[in-house]
Design brief:
Blueprint lengths: L1 H10 L14 H134 L2 H22 L1
Length: 184
């Protein structure tokens, strides 16, 4: 095992072989190394880089297309919504106008119906007053007539004696008999 370790350790002590080795001059080796690395990267990485860039370009283009389609769809929906809003606003204005005119018609109808009802109530009141007046007048007439009749009967009873009473009855019977002969 010591041979193996010694061989690794001894690698660092090898003298450089004439054409291959490490150049420690940074200014001289850096542009060469960079151009070699860039050349290798461009030669071998060009296909991979082109594929990556193409994929990225396709994703960007599809995203743009999708965005454009979404924008067109949003614009169409916006136009539809605006048209619907205009339609709803016109319907609302129409309902508002119809509502106001309907309210005015109902108001006029209610006023007319109320005035007609008041007129009928006034007529009923007047008829009731007239009826009550006639009834009161008839009651007063009946009372006056009854009092007059009672007064007349009282006077007749006080003035009539039996002989006068007999003559009045005989005269009335005579009048009735004469009327009977005329009708025969």
């Amino acid at each position: 095992m010591t041979n193996l370790t010694d061989s690794f350790v001894s690698l660092g002590h090898w003298p450089s072989a004439g054409s291959f080795g490490f150049n420690t001059d940074i200014l001289a080796t850096n542009p060469i190394n960079l151009s070699v690395v860039l050349g290798v990267l461009i030669f071998f990485g060009k296909g991979v880089l082109n594929d990556l860039l193409d994929n990225r370009k396709q994703r960007i283009l599809s995203t743009i297309r999708n965005s454009e389609e979404l924008r067109r769809g949003a614009i169409e929906q916006l136009e539809k919504a605006r048209a619907r809003l205009r339609k709803v606003e016109m319907e609302a204005d129409e309902y508002r106008m119809n509502g106001y005119s309907e309210i005015e018609r109902e108001k006029v109808n209610l006023i007319n119906a109320t005035s007609y009802s008041l007129e009928q109530l006034e007529n009923y009141k007047n008829e009731t007053l007239h009826f009550e007046q006639q009834r009161a007048i008839n009651q007063v007439r009946q009372q006056v007539f009854q009092q007059a009749l009672q007064g007349a009967l009282g006077i007749l009873n006080s003035c009539l004696n039996s002989e006068l009473h007999f003559r009045t009855i005989s005269a009335n019977i005579g009048i009735l008999g004469a009327m009977e002969e005329i009708t025969d």
